[in-house]
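Field reference: sequence -> structure
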Amino acid sequence: MEITNRPAITVSESDLDRLEAMLSALPDDHPGAEALHEELDRAQILPSDEMPADVVTMNSRIRFVIEPAGKEVEMTLVYPRDFTGAPGQLSVMASAGIAVLGLTVGQHVEWLAPGGQSVRARIVDVTYQPERTGDFTL
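Structure field:
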């Protein structure tokens, strides 16, 4: 599941540490592991308390628009351990989760859906971000 468009991304130090620890516990052939490694390797890393409020971080609630259909979706980006399959959850190990991690409001991204079709989306809002509220423990 390759991400086909790679806009600049920013990841917090604490998210990076948690994601790298999670990845180190997974087998190398785990779906999404290689793509997430690649994204983390190219990310700009900032201290958690310096994270801009409009960046998608772990446990952020985000609104994005699927283009060109204009369908708006609101989801929370979660770690696999927190993913229950409930509506509104997006695992960081899914193609879409890897694609939105670290994006800023207004950025566009593309990813390949499980069926192989390309999906294009634009981030329209980060309605909740843990760093913005001072919660660095999630």
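Note: The radius of gyration is 14 Å.
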